[in-house]
Structure formats: structure tokens, C-alpha cells
Amino acid sequence: MKLKAAKNIGIIAKHIVLPSSTNEIELLGILSHLNLDPHVHGVIVQMPLDCVNSINSNLITDSVFPNKDVDGLNSRNQGKVAVGDLATGFLPCTPSGCLELVKRSGTKIEGSHTVVIGRSRIVGTPVSELFKWHNATVTTCHSKTKNLDEVVANADILVVAIGQPNLIKGEWIKKGAVVIDCGITSIPDATRKSGSRLVGDVDFEQARKRASWITPVPGGVGPMTVVMLMKNIVLAAVKAARTL
């Protein structure tokens, strides 16, 4: 999807496929080469790393130069989000896509009670920060949160990124709430030719009866993530051109 989107808008994208035997030193070397290549404006490392060797994923994402970190996963870019500097770095793609979806729905974020379920470095934590800096009152839930159904029931905006299929029940959803489902899991389904189907973290069929807006899985957050990645690449190219 990323390669197709890049081609459609005139971005030259190259997919570097490495063997699963690649070690940390080798991967760092490749990233160093890309960092120093003036013709490369953006670098992303597809996560999770499908590798037989132990590789520190945080070290890898931090090794991408901040000015080429179009995934927004370098600690410097994440730190900017944490302190409310949303203009000088790159916003992480899935969280910024979630924010954009809510904006496009016409829902007022300022003053809303936004509940985020999940605190991962890639989605949950930056989503909470982005909505906070857009003046929502944010509650972040995780595996230790008590009475999750009661917390969800008070959400004007609900963003779920926990990785547990159909965890959030439809009857928990506040009537008229906006629901953004970032989860995607393959579950067995004997009625499908493939024997499986993709579902999100929210019980979609029940939740859609109560939500004013809700993202499907697949076809909701995923395509928006790709769009925000393309936006970051264009911004990176523009910034690079201004330094010439």
C-alpha cells in the first residue's frame, strides 16, 4: 500500500528487503548509508522486525536521522510530540491519522473526553499526547485499568489500539461517540474461503449501532496511516530543499 501510494503521487520509493539472518550491526550500517544519502528524504523501518537475531528496535528507530524519520518514531520526534511541539518534527503516522479522521468527521475535539486504550510507543502514547495538545481531556487505559467498560462509557471520542480482537463491546459505547479502531487481528472464520478474517479491537457490528462515526477494519485507520506517511515524506523533501 505504501509503495503504491508513493507511485501514485510521484514519490520514488524503494523497498529494501533484507534476509531474516540480518544482524543489528548490518542493519545499522544500511541505515547509516541511507541517512547520509542526500537523494533519500525519508526512511522507515517496517516493524516488527522479522529477524532471527536479537535486535534492539528502539536503537534502530533512533538511528534514523530525525530529519528523515518520516514514521515519527525517533525519540527526538516523539519528545517533540510529548512537549507539544507539533510543527518542527514529524508526527507518527497512525496517531496523526487518527486525529485527522476525527477532525474530518466534524467532531469537536476541544473539551471532549477522549479515551485511548493502549499505551504503546507507536500508537497509544502518541495518540494520547496529540489529543491532549488539541485540548481534549484524555484518559489513557491499559491492561491494568479497572472497570474498563465504565471508562469507555464516558468517552466522547474512543481510540483503541490494544491488539485484542473484539475486546470493546458495543454496549460499552456512549451513544453518539466517535470510535477509531487501530487494531487488526486475523481470527478463524469457517465461512470464508481463506478460513480467516480480519477484525479490530472493537466489536464493530454492535458498536456501529451506537457510534456516530466508526472506522471499519480493514479499510479504516490503515489507509489513513499511509496518507499521513506520504504527507511526512513530502514535508521532509521540502525541508531538505530549503537547506540547499
UniProtKB/TrEMBL annotation:
<comment type="pathway">
    <text>One-carbon metabolism; tetrahydrofolate interconversion.</text>
</comment>
<feature type="domain" description="Tetrahydrofolate dehydrogenase/cyclohydrolase catalytic">
    <location>
        <begin position="1"/>
        <end position="71"/>
    </location>
</feature>
<keyword id="KW-0554">One-carbon metabolism</keyword>
<dbReference type="InterPro" id="IPR020631">
    <property type="entry name" value="THF_DH/CycHdrlase_NAD-bd_dom"/>
</dbReference>
<keyword id="KW-0560">Oxidoreductase</keyword>
<keyword id="KW-0521">NADP</keyword>
<protein>
    <recommendedName>
        <fullName>Methenyltetrahydrofolate cyclohydrolase</fullName>
    </recommendedName>
</protein>
<dbReference type="InterPro" id="IPR020630">
    <property type="entry name" value="THF_DH/CycHdrlase_cat_dom"/>
</dbReference>
<dbReference type="InterPro" id="IPR000672">
    <property type="entry name" value="THF_DH/CycHdrlase"/>
</dbReference>
<feature type="domain" description="Tetrahydrofolate dehydrogenase/cyclohydrolase NAD(P)-binding">
    <location>
        <begin position="92"/>
        <end position="239"/>
    </location>
</feature>
<keyword id="KW-0378">Hydrolase</keyword>
<dbReference type="InterPro" id="IPR046346">
    <property type="entry name" value="Aminoacid_DH-like_N_sf"/>
</dbReference>
<dbReference type="InterPro" id="IPR036291">
    <property type="entry name" value="NAD(P)-bd_dom_sf"/>
</dbReference>
<dbReference type="InterPro" id="IPR020867">
    <property type="entry name" value="THF_DH/CycHdrlase_CS"/>
</dbReference>
<dbReference type="Pfam" id="PF02882">
    <property type="entry name" value="THF_DHG_CYH_C"/>
</dbReference>
<keyword id="KW-0511">Multifunctional enzyme</keyword>
<dbReference type="Pfam" id="PF00763">
    <property type="entry name" value="THF_DHG_CYH"/>
</dbReference>
